[in-house]
Inverse folding.
C-alpha cells in the first residue's frame, strides 16, 4: 500500500518533458560526464556546465539560523471573526485584516526548534518557534513567537549569553546541563520558563498539536489613536499533546524528522491543521495593582483575570513546493507590523525588533524581501536601491526610475495619508541601566508548578534531577535554593531527588538520564567487521 502511495505521489509531479539547461539558458547535452582529455582525464578548465553546477552547489545553503535552524512550514489562510467578544473589533484596533467577518488573509507559517542545528532531532527538549507571516492588504505582518507563552529573560542584552549557555559547548560541541544551570542559577527570571521547559511542555508531540503565542506584549491602536496592550495565543483545534523524556527518546530512535513528516503528510492527505487566535487585552498603563509588570515577557496574564477572546482562525492547507526557497529562506521580524498594530515598551520586544531583521539581512541578503516567500502581496514601492541580488521588483507602477529619493518636485513616490490618528504615547524619564521594579521572579513559577498535574510534576522533577546531577555542587545548591523560592514542595522534591540519585549522572542533552551509558553501549554491543 505504501508503494502505491509513493507511486501516486510521484505521478503527481509527472509533466511533459522539458529540456535541461544551465542557468544561462544553454541546453545541457551531457549531464553525466565532464569534458576531459580522453575518457580517463584530466578534466579541462573550460567545463562551463560543470563549473556553474558545482559552484552553485557549493553555495546552495544559506548560513544556518543562529537559533530556530531546524524548521518546517506550510501555507494557508487566516479568517477573521470581525469581533472581540461581544464588541466590534474596531473598538480596539483599526488593522484591516481583523475587521470583516469571514475576511481571509494568506499566511505562511514556520515551526521550529530553538537551540539545535538544522538536522537535529525534533524530539529534543527545547522551546518551539511558531512564526506566522500574514500577507495583508497593507503589507506583511509577522507574528513571531514560541509554543511556550513566556521567555527565559526580560532584557535583550542577555540574549546572546542565554543562547550560548543552551547551545553546545564551544570545545566539546555537546549540550551541557552544567553550562545551562550555571547561567540559570544567576538569572532567576528564568525560573518560570525552566519550569515549563523541563516538564512535558518542553517536548511537544508534533507541530500540529502544539500551541503558539506572541510571547511579548504588543499594542492595538484604533482609528482615534487610542491603544490597549495585547497578547496573542494560537490554540490548536487538534488539541495539545506533549511527550515524556522516555517517549521522546523512543521516537527519536525510529525517526528524528517525525514532526516535519507529520505536518507534511497531514496536509497532503487533506487533514488540514487549524488554530484559533485568541487575544487578551489590558489597558495601556503600568497597572500598579498587579504583582508583576504587564510588559514582562517572563510572566503570564492569567486568563481568569484577563479573558481570552477569539478573533479568528488559521488553516494550513498547502505544503511548500520547495523547502529551501520557502521554509529556509522565509524571513520573519517582530518589527513587521501593519497599521493598527504597534509596539509596547517591552525591553525584549524592542531588542528582538532590531535583531530579527538584522539577522535576515546577514543570512539571506540585503534584498531578502524581494524573494517571493517574503515579498508582500501588496506591491511595495520604495527608494531603497542596490545591494546583493537586487532585481528591482519594487518600483511604483508609474514611478520615474531617475528619482530614487523623496521629497521631489520632479516625480517619485509620495507619502501615504495616515488612515487614523497617530498613536502618541507619552515618554519621560532618566536614561538608566536598571531592572524593572516588579521582577517577582518566583511567584508565577511556583503557580505553574502547582497547576501542573502530578504526572507532569513527576516528569519535571525527574528531568531536572537528571540534568542537575552531573553539575558542580555549588550550582546544584543555588538551583535548589531557587526552586524553594518558587514553591516549598518544588524545592524539596528536587533536593531529595539529587540526594537519592546514587550515580553521578552524565552530561548530554538536557533531561536525558543515560547519555554516557549510550556512548559506552555503542562500543560494547557493536558488531566487528573485517576491513575491505
Amino acid at each position: 500500500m505504501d508503494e502505491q502511495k509513493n507511486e501516486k505521489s510521484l505521478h503527481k509531479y509527472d509533466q511533459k518533458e522539458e529540456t535541461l539547461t544551465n542557468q544561462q539558458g544553454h541546453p545541457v547535452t551531457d549531464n553525466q560526464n565532464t569534458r576531459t582529455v580522453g575518457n580517463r582525464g584530466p578534466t579541462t578548465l573550460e567545463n562551463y556546465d560543470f563549473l556553474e553546477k558545482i559552484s552553485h552547489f557549493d553555495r546552495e545553503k544559506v548560513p544556518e539560523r543562529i537559533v530556530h535552524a531546524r524548521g518546517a512550514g506550510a501555507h494557508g489562510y487566516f479568517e477573521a471573526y470581525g469581533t472581540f467578544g461581544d464588541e466590534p473589533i474596531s473598538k480596539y484596533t483599526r488593522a484591516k485584516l481583523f475587521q470583516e467577518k469571514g475576511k481571509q488573509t494568506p499566511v505562511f507559517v514556520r515551526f521550529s526548534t530553538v537551540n539545535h542545528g538544522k538536522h537535529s532531532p525534533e524530539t529534543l527538549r527545547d522551546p518551539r518557534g511558531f512564526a506566522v507571516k500574514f500577507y495583508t492588504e497593507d503589507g506583511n505582518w509577522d507574528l513571531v513567537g514560541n509554543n511556550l507563552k513566556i521567555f527565559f529573560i526580560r532584557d535583550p542584552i542577555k540574549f546572546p549569553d542565554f543562547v550560548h549557555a543552551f547551545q553546545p559547548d564551544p570545545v566539546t560541541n555537546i549540550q551541557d546541563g552544567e553550562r545551562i544551570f550555571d547561567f540559570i542559577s544567576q538569572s532567576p527570571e528564568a525560573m518560570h520558563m525552566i519550569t515549563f521547559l523541563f516538564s512535558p511542555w518542553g517536548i511537544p508531540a508534533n507541530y500540529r498539536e502544539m500551541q503558539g503565542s506572541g510571547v511579548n506584549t504588543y499594542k492595538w491602536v484604533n482609528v482615534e489613536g487610542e491603544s490597549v496592550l495585547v497578547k496573542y495565543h494560537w490554540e490548536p483545534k487538534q488539541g495539545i499533546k506533549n511527550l515524556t523524556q522516555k517517549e521522546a527518546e523512543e521516537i527519536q530512535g525510529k525517526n528524528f524528522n517525525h514532526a516535519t513528516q507529520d505536518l507534511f503528510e497531514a496536509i497532503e492527505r487533506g487533514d488540514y491543521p487549524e488554530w484559533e487566535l485568541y487575544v487578551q487585552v489590558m489597558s495601556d498603563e503600568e497597572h500598579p495593582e498587579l504583582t508583576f509588570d504587564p510588559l514582562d515577557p517572563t510572566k503570564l496574564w492569567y486568563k481568569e483575570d484577563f479573558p481570552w477572546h477569539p478573533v479568528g482562525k488559521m488553516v494550513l492547507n498547502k505544503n511548500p513546493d520547495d523547502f529551501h526557497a520557502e521554509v529556509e529562506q522565509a524571513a520573519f521580524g517582530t518589527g513587521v507590523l501593519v497599521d493598527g498594530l504597534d509596539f509596547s515598551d517591552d525591553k525584549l520586544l524592542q531588542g528582538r525588533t532590531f535583531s530579527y531583521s538584522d539577522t535576515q539581512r546577514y543570512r539571506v541578503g540585503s534584498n531578502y524581501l524581494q524573494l517571493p516567500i517574503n515579498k508582500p502581496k501588496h506591491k511595495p514601492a520604495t527608494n531603497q536601491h542596490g545591494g546583493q541580488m537586487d532585481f528591482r521588483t519594487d518600483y511604483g507602477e508609474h514611478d520615474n526610475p531617475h528619482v530614487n529619493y523623496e521629497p521631489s518636485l520632479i516625480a517619485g513616490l509620495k507619502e501615504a495619508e495616515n488612515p487614523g490618528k497617530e498613536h502618541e504615547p507619552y515618554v519621560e524619564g532618566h536614561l538608566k541601566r536598571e531592572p524593572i521594579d516588579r521582577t517577582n521572579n518566583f511567584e508565577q513559577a511556583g503557580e505553574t508548578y502547582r497547576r501542573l498535574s502530578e504526572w507532569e510534576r513527576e516528569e519535571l522533577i525527574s528531568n531536572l534531577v537528571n540534568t542537575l546531577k552531573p553539575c558542580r555542587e555549588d550550582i546544584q545548591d543555588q538551583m535548589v535554593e531557587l526552586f524553594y523560592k518558587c514553591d516549598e514542595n518544588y524545592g524539596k522534591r528536587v533536593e531529595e531527588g539529587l540526594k537519592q540519585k546514587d550515580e553521578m549522572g552524565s552530561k548530554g542533552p538536557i533531561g536525558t538520564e543515560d547519555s554516557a551509558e549510550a556512548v559506552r553501549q555503542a562500543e560494547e554491543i557493536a558488531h566487528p567487521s573485517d576491513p575491505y
